[in-house]
Amino acid sequence: MTTEHNISTMMQAMGQAAKAAAQSLALATTDQKNAALQAAAQALRAQQETILKANARDMEIAEARHLAPALLDRLMLDPARIEAMAGSLDAIALLPDPVGDVMAAWDRPNGLNISRVRVPLGVIGIIYESRPNVTADAGALCLKSGNAAILRGGSESARSSKAIHDCLKEGLRAARLPEEAIQVIPTQDRAAVGELLGLVQYVDIIVPRGGKSLIERVQQDSRVPVMAHLDGICHVYIDKDADLEKAVAITLNAKMRRTGICGATETLLVDQDVLDSHLPAIIDALKIAGCELRGDKAVQALDESILPAQEADWTTEYLDAILSIRTVDGVTGAIDHIARYGSQHTDCIITENAVTAEIFLTQVDSAIVMHNSSTQFADGGEFGMGAEIGISTGKMHARGPVGLEQLTSYKYQVRGDGQTRP
Amino acid sequence: MTTEHNISTMMQAMGQAAKAAAQSLALATTDQKNAALQAAAQALRAQQETILKANARDMEIAEARHLAPALLDRLMLDPARIEAMAGSLDAIALLPDPVGDVMAAWDRPNGLNISRVRVPLGVIGIIYESRPNVTADAGALCLKSGNAAILRGGSESARSSKAIHDCLKEGLRAARLPEEAIQVIPTQDRAAVGELLGLVQYVDIIVPRGGKSLIERVQQDSRVPVMAHLDGICHVYIDKDADLEKAVAITLNAKMRRTGICGATETLLVDQDVLDSHLPAIIDALKIAGCELRGDKAVQALDESILPAQEADWTTEYLDAILSIRTVDGVTGAIDHIARYGSQHTDCIITENAVTAEIFLTQVDSAIVMHNSSTQFADGGEFGMGAEIGISTGKMHARGPVGLEQLTSYKYQVRGDGQTRP
């Protein structure tokens, strides 16, 4: 047998086991799922030494391969990070269980009672880069929402992921749930990902988490539906009726609070009418915070240190301390710019004019549209949804933060007493 | 230029035009959309002669090609059917507009107000067989839900579809909405379908309506998400606590009311305990109604006219006056059979035992699960959802009947007064 054949057989078996586990999980009680999460959290704490040893070996290899410092930082575990993972499992146990929720119920004139009830999606495949904590978080979110998970992390974190996965399995066993509810693909062979993306008979949805190239590849190749966001090219638009103080504070926060997250603002749009009155203070605040600025000619005219923005700047997710700034002709100009260059993630208007705000909130076609608040609030936790597995910019199924509810489907239950259809 | 190149260029242009039209439609008022629907209904009535002439030409060609009588019947239009189409547009105008609905709204401790608001999906591609009325119905449902439509009907109905489409365009013009809101692919070249299924940058969702081979092909080839049901292998399960009268009436209705619809029952499961007490009366009723029966050995023992059921019978959607019958060991046996052979469409339990009913309703993983009522109620109209564009057996996005609401997505609107994220 070739290796490829082996991997195909292995992935089929994993898919089949996941589907069987999903059937049990769909019927598991909330208490049972919470018990599994809490036991897994305890196991993470108890197995701290084992996990740290596995992680040290991952780090050694990664350092020998000269991984970038940012990647090494993501990969690294210490006691505080392990405790954070365990705490996150405990927190997910405390979230409400969406499964079984009656979303709506009504009676028909013929006496039929119809209710729409939340059920798990089934089997979720998650593909992510070398962040060991995703193994715990993603596995736990799938478990709480009644879904079986097939996880595939980056190769650099393979040993750490395995050690964490062992703790999750311990939790499942303690709650008498099938261990196959959370599986980690045990090989780093890329063919395994290809197989996973084709397992339409077993896998209901794929959630890729990571950089643009990973997500593009998954969206291109997957025959299973994908829930993801490709880019987070978020905008703040300073309207002519913007409050200057809010404009400065929000722009600074939206760009600089954390530059590497998808809700960080990448382009600032400014109404030409307030270029002179509002932009200088914003520029000063950003420069003091260490942000590189790139602007159109009118923006550059305000400050000679501003670099010229190229066409590519309007479509670039810097994920860094860089901001592109463009002058626009009112809210319509802002809406047009966002429609053309945006990524339908999160966009914000700063204005004291309620009418203009509503135009922006209605006409900008993004998952999250905001008024007078920082784009960095684009987060399931900040929305009050508890933990999130990511943000979706697609319009199918879930849009915006993907929390427990968004990992469910529904079914209709119809109760009658002998009705036949005329 | 090759023809293929021409078709690719044409489909790109149609996609681009649809996306532009969708942006206008998303902002159209309910009154404007209703005016377009009502004007289109009037145009259908006024253009009756033109439509009938076009249809007569389609029928001539179809007859010369010796189309099956059932297909010819679907293709045929007469004044009553044209009036029914017009009436259906008027009825869709009366349905509530889902766009703009605030699905949920809440305040965060930091003062942010978050609301989830329904928005259209965008552009919907609909691929269907030679039923001219689908051109009107599908176009109207997309319009009312604020979506642009690209329609592709079967080649046999091309002339009828064009005449109906002309009326829809007349309605759009009368309401000052873009004509490109509803487009019909003007060529019967199969390459056009292939192009449509790849238009990920313009088309948000594909809805195929028709036979299994059409849907399989679309699901296999589409890079755009697909919403559909492949099979409707619906089951009725007669529990040991079933009321005999209900069992007979519901089984007869579920199988024979109309045999060609997706909610028609294809397999009857009977608890072994009531084989002798309940099944004979059901068999008699079905035989009188002209239904062919195929059963396992225990079922055949009750009536020598019953043919032996083969393994393939459990996975066949007959869409005809044929029923397969199997003995099972209680509700667990029924659930296992449905999990193995069903199509996750619609399944029903007949029982007077409320506990058993709940087990079935909870554990059968189908879009619609029923208690003591006919599977032929599996229909958006019967659910009180108004018109439907089809039934989805997938778990992503919409499950069960797909009405106006299911043709929408949502966005989050966040209103603040200067909040920044700590």
UniProtKB/TrEMBL annotation, chains A, B:
It holds the Pfam family Aldedh. Its EC number is 1.2.1.41. Residues 27-57 form a coiled coil. It is found in: Cytoplasm. InterPro entries: Ald_DH/histidinol_DH, Ald_DH_C, Ald_DH_N, Aldehyde_DH_dom, G-glutamylP_reductase_CS, Glu-5-SA_DH, GPR_dom. Residues 12-287 form the Aldehyde dehydrogenase domain. GO terms for biological process: L-proline biosynthetic process. Its main location: cytoplasm. Catalyzes the NADPH-dependent reduction of L-glutamate 5-phosphate into L-glutamate 5-semialdehyde and phosphate. The product spontaneously undergoes cyclization to form 1-pyrroline-5-carboxylate. This is Gamma-glutamyl phosphate reductase. The lineage of its organism: Bacteria, Pseudomonadati, Pseudomonadota, Alphaproteobacteria, Emcibacterales.
